[in-house]
Amino acid sequence: MKQMNEIEHRFPYRWTLKDAVFTKDKGKVFSCFACGGGSTMGYKLAGFDVLGCNEIDPKMIEAYKANHNPKYAYLEPIQTFKLREDLPQELYELDILDGSPPCSSFSMAGNREKDWGKDKVFREGQAMQVLDTLFFDFIDLAKKLQPKVVVAENVKGLLMGEAIAYVREIYKQFDEAGYYCQHWLLDASKMGVPQRRERVFFIALRKDLAAPFLIQQDMFTQVPELKLDFNEAEIDLESLDIELKGKHFVSAGNERHIKFGRLRYGNSNEVAFTLTATGNQVDYFDKIENESFVNGKKFNNEQVNLIATFPTDYNFNRKRNIYMCGMSVPPVMTAQIATEIYNQWLSKI
Q1: pLDDT band at 107, cuts 50/70/90?
Q2: Where is mean pLDDT largest: 103-117, 270-284, 306-320?
Q3: Helix 38-45 to helix 331-344 angle, to the nearest 10 degrees?
Q4: What is the structure's pLDDT at 212?
Q5: pLDDT for 287-324, tens place per residue?
Q6: How crowded is residue 111: how many other Cβ atoms within 10 Å of its Cβ?
Q7: What's phi and psi for 185, nearest 5 deg?
Q8: Which conformational region is residue 15 in: left (phi greater than 0), alpha (psi within -120 to 50 degrees), or beta?
Q9: Which residues, 6+ apart, have CB-to-CB distance to 138 below 8 Å?
Q10: Domain spans of the chain?
Q11: How far apart are CA 276 and CA 270, in angstroms?
Q12: Distance from CA of residue 149 to its chain's centroid?
């Protein structure tokens, strides 16, 4: 694999908050389901001014505040946040409303259909909620605030099997809220992120702003044109100066023994697999004997930050960085998308 110097990528994957220059001249953003601020950092890298966040987990929002000092921070479920009548006027004048509704109900690693429609206690905030309806609460908020653009990230599993019915409902509700909606399945490894992480992004443009951008999608449907074609050079583990020469790495899993068909493993001259929030798995090893990893080790904190494109000086506020990085959209992934939204839409409105 050809190794590229990171200066040849649009955004750095090795960076620090203390040295970053955020221009804040591309527009205003508010982030829901903000976690510790992964997507917020991406918008900042792209030059946006992120006004604040809504988050249900008190530990996450404290980490968010420690790094971003938001103007507005709401610690509450989105079900109550969307009903607020005391929101500041700035939130009704957003360029982008961003959100990553919790997605474990649709993950290929979970129970999927067996959990749909059920109240579950989930780790973020330890709250009992029906996870698969949170996306629609987010659309309700968009209908209320009427930002120019809405960006919602979710897992690849949302596009698979019976979950496609939820996608149809997402489109329907965005249409009723006054938006043209489209979705893209994007791989972070093609966008300057050192991990293979596929995520689906729903991007919606307010209908009253869309006329200059409309193209004929098919015989019956017009959509605002937005090209999200990313093909940056892949960044393998050796390019990150992670000393794994002659070693192997494995995909996410909770077992220390290989369950063939469930875990994958590759070489250190390949791109890392998706980081997950559990952090319980062996990340790399020397060899396999008797279906066990020999000399199995985990990525250290600095390595996790690099693979996730988090700044190396990020304050995780006593939270394990693998958890926050595994839960978050990689900042560089968001920065790439936000830049194209600005270049192709917002700069021309």
Answers
A1: very low
A2: 306-320
A3: 40
A4: 97
A5: 888 777 788 888 889 999 999 999 999 999 888 899 99
A6: 12
A7: -100, 115
A8: beta
A9: 32, 33, 78, 99, 101, 152
A10: 6-235+329-348
A11: 18
A12: 17
Using the structure block, give the residue that is written with the tokens 């790399």.
284
Q: Is residue 59 within 8 Å of residue 323, measured between CB atoms?
A: no
Residue 226 near residue 250, CB atoms below 8 Å = no
Domain 6-235+329-348 listed as CATH 3.40.50.620: no
Answer yes or no: are the C-beta atoms of 154 and 200 closer than 8 Å.
yes
Does the pLDDT value for residue 277 go beyond 80? yes
- Tens digits of residue pLDDT in 176-228: 999 999 999 999 999 999 999 999 999 999 999 999 999 998 888 899 999 99
Number of helices (H), then strands (E), belonging to the chain: the values are: 8, 16
Q: Average pLDDT of 48-64?
A: 96
- Closest residue by Cα to residue 74 from 123, 133, 34, 130: 34
Instruction: Specify the pLDDT at position 125.
Output: 53
Q: 133, 47, 117: which is closest to 339 by C-alpha?
A: 47
In one-letter notation, the amino acid at residue 205 is L
103 annotated active-site: yes
Q: Which is the catalytic residue, given 32, 35, 53, 103? A: 103
DSSP string, 118-144: -EEEETTTTEEEEGGGHHHHHHHHHHH
**Per-residue CA distances from 4 to 10, 195, 240, 283, 320 (Å):** 12, 15, 11, 24, 30
